[in-house]
Amino acid sequence: CIPVLETGPMTQVAALAMLLLDPRGRIGRRDLLLAACAVLGIELLLMAPSNEMIALLAKSLALWIGSAAIIKRLHDLGRSGWWLPAGLGGLCMWTALLATGFLVTAGSDAFVPGKPGYAALSGLVMLPAIGTGLWLHLTQGDVAANRFGPPALAWPPQRVPSLDPVDADEPARA
User: Fold this and answer.
1) Could you tell me the pTM of the whole model?
2) Regions in the chain scoring below 70 on pLDDT
């Protein structure tokens, strides 16, 4: 039988916490965008002057939420969450190669904000991250269950009709 999801306020808070904090399972494109908005909200709150310890905790929370969301989205695409650290390693190598190339060709001026090579270097460093972000947001996930679980249910949770006889007596809602 299909489980019944209650939709009370506390259940929705728990579902949102699981969506944002638990790296297991799968999330779709819309929920990845929701997680990205949560991270952006945390970052915007940090623009106000605050205690260094609070800032560290908030940055750690934003990093965890972002990582959990990316891992779940990778799961939705049928890929392991280990692609996240592998991709970060690749980004580090890409950045080191670009920095070395710019240092050899343009000199140290490429690392000074406002100089001509700085904008080009910064833009090229971000290309893989932008491409990966677009891929994660635009690619449709697996429509059937995969090794990471059934297809992602969108948040907020909706009541799923049960096949139990108890629900069969409920009047149909228009």
Assistant:
1) 0.77
2) 1-10, 154-174
